[in-house]
Amino acid sequence: MLALDIRNLNKKYPNFQIKDVSFQLEQGYIMGFIGVNGAGKTTTIKSILNMVQADSGEISILGKNIAEHETELKQDIGCAFGDIDFYTRSRLKTLTGITKKFYKNWSDETYYSYLNRFKLDENKKIAELSTGMKVKYSLTLALSHGARLLILDEPTSGLDPVSRDDLLDIFQELIMGGEISILFSTHITSDLERCADYITFIEQGQIVASSEKNEFKESYRLLSGSESQLNEVKGKLISCKINSFGFTGLIHARDIDPAWSLNTAIPTLDDIMIYFAKKEGVYV
Amino acid sequence: MYNLVLKDLKLGVNPWFFILPLILGGLMLIPGWVYFLVPLYFCFITVPNMFGGFKSQNDLIFSTMMPVTKPDIVKSRIAVIVILELMHLLIAMIFSIFTFRLYPQMTYIFFPPYMGFWGLCFIMLAVFNLIFITMYYKTAYKYGAATTASTAAAILFAGLVQWAGIQNSWMHGIFYGSGTGNAALQFSILIGGILIFAAFTLMAYRIAVRRFLKVEIL
């Protein structure tokens, strides 16, 4: 079953547009949604949550159209926005007391078990929590109402490496039962190297690729060679960097000519993002 | 809808704004004052502070993340406004009973607080609601222009009817003179005011929902 199914999503702003965004997330997996700042990750996520009105396209969550079943589906969605705080002068227990009334599947038992696990003090105010603790609190709320799809917008931004590592372990544990799925937007791609099953890469409002993580990485190659060899391959490179030792560029694996005597390597997610960001014009 | 109202009452609205009607109600004890100012303080103080709080606390995103519809978000917010408005008016009305007891021989320059006057207050807040709510829900966070325009309109209404009450003998008769002894007339003005308040607020709700459905929650 698809936890999330986005087809041909379009949204036009005066200076930016989301164009034909389509991707699917299978239930029980983690999908990393990557792209540079301003690529369209948050706009896509807000469209999923019906916060932004798409010009066209269809969004289905757990088999149901969000536009038609918004209230019902939001019972099954948990979200966390890394950089937004709500009612920061309120205590956790106050905010929880209000939030739980909205959800019919709320479980106090689950809530307190996560509260203990994350070492969150109910009597603290939101403002007193560290960034990592805030994300953990958002997760606690999401998991306590039995969310089956977690939509997390840059939840690891601003976290220290230990908190990030901890959070990624939690994400992996959550999907083990096969019931919970996670869409996780970030520009910190090393997090996804560790925990994502699928990668969806968005660049300037368009999906460049959406596939299994290793398949995604292996569909590209980092090519390096001397400056004199550059002319031979330049037309096929997505983009390249030139330095005193020669050049390094990103290329689609399918475009590699076996006759070339160049060094090739599988790029990291960071490499792919960086070289795509340097690319000019329209995508393949 | 009920949960959203509860959320506003417990989280969004500072308890001070529930105490304020009691304090402002005390202003009704000032003899012969411009009593229109008592409900107007709701527009001057409560509304900008309360909506400033909603904006700074990111209430809009919090509410839209909950499993509720956009019309419910508007409906609950209007319910909170109406609850506070009714608190202001009802408490002021109760204080006005003591005003008449304290100053039985008072000669009023401005409207004395009979039932008819409270009917006018309901109409004044109806005007305020219609303008404030509809303007606010163009963005669902910008409250400055909406507060200014709606408060100005409410003051204008109050100023005009007060002027008419002083200058026009028919109006004067209803609100100061022999009409004040006519319980049926006074009561019907009050009921009329309440009906206008309900109609304008309902109209504001419908327009606000239409506008809010187009608002992008950024």
UniProtKB/TrEMBL annotation, chain A:
Single GO molecular function: ATP binding
Domain ABC transporter, first and last residues per copy: 1-229
Gene3D superfamilies: P-loop containing nucleotide triphosphate hydrolases (3.40.50.300)
Cited Pfam families: ABC_tran
InterPro entries listed in its UniProt record: AAA+_ATPase (IPR003593), ABC_transporter-like_ATP-bd (IPR003439), ABC_Transporter_VariousFunc (IPR051782), P-loop_NTPase (IPR027417)
Entry keywords, A to Z: ATP-binding, Nucleotide-binding, Transport
Origin: domain of life: Bacteria
Record's protein name: ABC-2 type transport system ATP-binding protein
Originating species: Paenibacillus silagei
Automatic annotation (TrEMBL), chain B:
Keywords: Membrane, Transmembrane, Transmembrane helix
InterPro entries: ABC2_memb-like
Residue intervals passing through the bilayer: 16-47, 78-103, 115-136, 143-164, 184-205
Keyword Ribonucleoprotein: no
Record-linked Pfam families: ABC2_membrane_5
Residues in the signal sequence: none
UniProt superkingdom: Bacteria
Name assigned to this protein: ABC-2 transporter permease
Organism: Paenibacillus silagei
